[in-house]
Amino acid sequence: MQDSALHPQPREVPISELARVPGFDRLDKGELEQLEALTEKKRFAANTAIFFQDDPADALYILLSGSAKMFQTSEAGKDRILRILQPGNAFGDLAMIEGKNRFVSVQTLEACETLRLARKDLVAFANTHTWVLWTLLSTFAERIRRMNEDVLDLSFRDVPYRLLHALNDLVERHGQQGPDGCRISMQLSASDLASMIGSNTDTVGRLLDRYENDGLIKRSGANWIVPDPKSLTRTLEYTAQQGV
Amino acid sequence: MKARLRFSLVSTLVVLLPRLAAAHERFVKHDLKKPMQDAFFMQQDGKPFGMDPNMIQIGLLVTLVLAAFFVFFFLREGLDEFLRYKILAPLRGAVQRFVHNLACFIMDKPVRNKWFYAAGEWSVIMFLRSPALVLMYSATNDSLVMPSYPLEPSSAVIFKFIQVLLAILILTQTLLPLCGALVIGTWLYTFRWGPLVAIDAIPVVTAGILYAMSPWQSHKLAITRMNAQQTRVIRFVFGLGFFVLGWAKIYNHDLTVGVADNYPWIMNDPMVGFFKIGTDATFQRETWVMSFALAEVMSGFMMMMGVFTRLWGTIMIIMFTKLTLVDFGWDEIPHLYPIGAALAVVTSNHLRSEFGIVERIERAWRSGSPAMRWGMVAVSSAVIAFLAVMPIMYLLTFTDRAYLR
């Protein structure tokens, strides 16, 4: 494969919403139009499944607006949130490439708009634009790295550290600065946070109360506000030193 | 457990088996109120393929229904897509998830729900132990396994104690492989009285298989789930039991209609009534036997092949529960066996069909012409359904039933 295919240069300023997706911003106007013609725009109301675990994986999705949770459900019906998706994230790609059934579910947290790209169309497009595959590979690599970190956390870290780590991560990814501090833009219950870090709701609820008393976090309706993100980071670092 | 001890135990129990099975005598009330028209079931000159046209009509209708179920099954991923994008799309949250789980249940996909999981665990626990309850019940009623098989008074005490011992082993999950060997061995020995007796007892083998596939240290384990292999074998044997039993009902039609003569309300079955539609009224009882038996053949075949397993399993659970609680009463309490087996299979998340090759071709051809794909599915379904019903029905018209009298 030629080097230019591995490291394509950004071309014209894109006009399509697809251009907001990491990797696709390298497409020129013509290619973007070509790709966009293959996609289908779909809207989902809040609290709606985009797809369920075990469904046939026939397409990948790109989140254009809103947020969604990606989670796995065990046979016993327990959910574990793997990732919070935000605009620009592509999802459903791994199972689609594997050609097997979905191994995660994705459910919207708020009203979402997505682009759906069918497997056969992506395969045809990738045949002429091989770097798309490298973009997907780099996404997979990032995901594997995050999974390794999760496995490490679950193996060696206790629940307080995992919760602080999750909150810190949410502030970095979904934080919106306001007069009261940094507001986590999505609505997450104690149960959601528990399923994100592989713990139970009671333990996480108690820890959230403690952190609220300590002034690390604040409830604002169904959202969380972190008055001083730096303080949260320092607490995380301190907990990390204690825990290992 | 040491090999020598294991060998001694198995040998002792196997030696006892002939005497155990010798007590077997069936006396289900099945006396005919009036004789059947035997010629209906036999080769007849001047008829197409030598078969009665009513028989062919019922056979072809069952083939058609069976083929339709296969078509739906092979195209279920397309139906799933319709469900996801059309039915589920306007729903939200818990309601959407409930409808999704319901669809997964019908389409034999994994159902990821804590209540379903708990039901599955409870079903396996019941399935593992239900034979013990039946054995205890039989022992207290001087019968062998089923109340309809009474023990000879001369040897009754020995066999009552053996049944209780086996029941204790099952209830305490002790030496389950040995229990399995005993159950399967007893079943094999029933061939001594002819295949009809053995066919009647096939559902019992499902429990024997689960025991035989358990580890020797079974008493130390909490066995609450079946793995994919166990599920597959139990489903197959369970379905095979009904498939063969259906054909046996046609072969031994006097017994079948004799039971109906004594319990006439069992003739009022909507599916059986549907298969009988348009047949000659002068063959009222004969066509009922055909329809009743072929309904069992159809459901057994689908269970055996893993096609809409949960749907047919649920129908069987309802049917057996009705037979036990409403139609026949306590005498049919051994139906706990098939109820337990069906529950364990229905609540398993390891269901698959035996026609993976058709499903793979259907999937591979999805990007091509829909007409080709649907044609392949239609032809495959028709061929499978036809082969499952018509050849055996034809062969049965050549059999001699004189010795059954």
Write structural notes for this entry.
The complex is a heterodimer of chains A (244) and B (405). Chain A is α+β, with helices and mostly antiparallel strands and 244 residues long. Chain A folds into two domains: 3-148, Jelly Rolls (Sandwich), CATH 2.60.120; 157-243, Jelly Rolls (Sandwich), CATH 2.60.120.10. Chain A contains nine helices and twelve strands. Chain A has helices spanning 3-6, 29-38, 93-98, 119-128, 131-156, 159-174, 190-197, 201-213, 229-243; strands spanning 39-44, 49-51, 59-65, 68-73, 79-85, 90-91, 105-108, 112-118, 175-178, 181-184, 218-220, 223-226. A four-stranded antiparallel sheet of chain A has the order 1-8-3-6. In chain A, strands 2-7-4-5 form a four-stranded antiparallel sheet. A four-stranded antiparallel sheet of chain A has the order 9-10-12-11. In chain A, helix 6 crosses helix 7 and helix 6 (159-174) packs antiparallel against helix 9. Mean pLDDT of chain A is 82; it is low at 1-14. With 405 residues, chain B is mostly helical. Chain B has 17 helices and two strands. In chain B, strands 1-2 form a two-stranded antiparallel sheet. The longest helix of chain B has 27 residues, at 114-140. Mean pLDDT of chain B is 84; it is low at 12-28. The interface between A and B is medium-sized, with 19 and 23 residues.
Overall pLDDT score of chain A: 82
Largest interface: A-B, 19 and 23 residues
Range of strand content of chain B: under 5%
Poorly predicted spans of chain B: 12-28
Task: Give the C-level CATH assignment of the largest domain in chain A.
Answer: Mainly Beta
**SSE order of chain B:** HHHHHEEHHHHHHHHHHHH
Task: Give a short account of the largest sheet of chain B.
Answer: 2 strands, antiparallel
**Helix coverage percent of residues of chain B?**
55-70%
> How many domain regions of chain A?
2
User: Total strand count of chain B, please?
Assistant: 2
Strand arrangement in the largest pleated sheet of chain A = 1-8-3-6
From the alpha carbons, calculate the radius of gyration of chain A and give it in angstroms: 20 Å
Using DSSP, what is the number of strands of chain A? 12
In CATH, what is the homologous superfamily of the largest domain in chain A?
Jelly Rolls
- Quaternary state reads heterodimer
Q: Helices and strands of chain A: which structural class?
A: alpha+beta
How far the N terminus sits from the C terminus of chain A, by CA atoms, comes to 45 Å
Low-confidence stretches of chain A: 1-14
Q: What's the SSE pattern of chain A?
A: HHEEEEEEHEEHHHEEHHEEH
Ends apart, CA distance between termini of chain B: 49 Å
